[in-house]
Design brief:
Elements: H1 77-90, H2 95-102, H3 130-147, H4 152-161, H5 166-178, H6 184-198, H7 203-212, H8 218-224, H9 229-243, H10 253-266, H11 271-290
Biased composition (Low complexity): 39-53, 69-87
Biased composition (Basic residues): 103-118
Domain RecX second three-helical: 183-224
């Protein structure tokens, strides 16, 4: 780039200065001389030529005004300049940061993630030994017998429900029979006495209950021999007489007889026996009072 020589003129610059116009700073603190007079060298063509990019002077550095905060290391320049400008405008230290943050939305709080439960599909079933099954089965049998007397068939069903192997269950029940903790004959006799006394059931109804509990055949018939025909008829007559104590039973004979016969039939009594006992008891209770 060409420069001018001996263009000092009235500016007061030294003779022979070879400085293009762009090399002088813009603040006037240089060899310009009197600001109102234009030096001769400034009117030369070389003085108005553009400089090379690497030689061009940068913008003048400005000192931060009072109240501005300079950027810290690690923060972006745009954020620092925005906060500085807002702080300078408001005239209070640190107020620029607040005004900038007021316009931003806070992120919504994250909902806690629900932990997915892992399905235990890879676990193998626990296999016990016969000894361990026997210990578990003995505890089951003792709990069942403590609650109430039960037949062998009922106890076996309970053991199988608790996943006790069948051969272990049979061995346990045989052992309990040896020590008289399981006795189907005694259970059947006690069941017949209890159901006939407390519920007034006939032999046919009790026979069905024993069959449901795994006791039938000769063992069941032997237990039912405790109730003969005479005892059965006495029990049925007692049931009817207790029902006829209500005065409403004498208002409508047909309705009362139908209700009482149905009650005896549900308890296992034959229809012929039921009709005979009900009619005789109704006549004695209501027609006998009229006489």
């Amino acid at each position: 780039m060409s420069t001018t020589k001996d263009q000092g003129g009235s500016s007061g610059s030294r003779g022979g200065a070879e400085r293009p116009l762009w090399s002088f700073p813009a603040d006037g603190n240089s060899d310009w001389g009197v600001p109102t007079e234009i030096p001769g060298w400034a009117q030369s063509p070389a003085a108005s030529q553009a400089p090379a990019p690497e030689q061009a002077p940068g913008p003048p550095e400005t000192k931060p005004a009072f109240g501005e905060r300079s950027g810290f290391a690690g923060r972006s320049g745009s954020r620092t300049s925005t906060r500085s400008a807002s702080g300078a405008g408001r005239g209070s230290w640190g107020s620029g940061g607040r005004s900038t943050r007021q316009g931003t939305k806070r992120a919504a709080p994250r909902a806690p993630r629900a932990r997915a439960k892992k399905e235990k599909t890879d676990l193998e079933p626990v296999i016990l030994s016969d000894e361990q099954y026997a210990t578990k089965g003995r505890a089951i049998l003792l709990r069942q017998l403590t609650a109430s007397a039960k037949s062998r068939a009922q106890l076996k069903t309970k053991l199988l429900e608790k996943e006790i192997p069948e051969h272990v269950a049979e061995e346990l029940l045989d052992r309990f029979e040896e020590i008289a903790l399981v006795d189907d004959e005694a259970f059947a006799e006690g069941w017949v006495r209890s159901r006939a006394r407390s519920r007034g059931l006939a032999r046919s109804a009790i026979r069905r209950e024993l069959r449901d509990k795994g006791i039938e055949g000769e063992m069941a018939e032997t237990a039912l021999e405790q109730i003969d025909e005479d005892a059965e008829e006495i029990t049925a007559r007692d049931l009817v007489e207790r029902k006829l104590r209500a005065p409403s039973m004498g208002l409508d004979r047909e309705k009362s007889v139908r209700r009482l016969v149905g009650m005896l039939a549900r308890k296992g009594y034959s229809p012929g026996l039921a009709f005979r006992i009900v009619n005789a008891a109704w006549e004695e209770r209501f027609n006998g009072d009229d006489d």
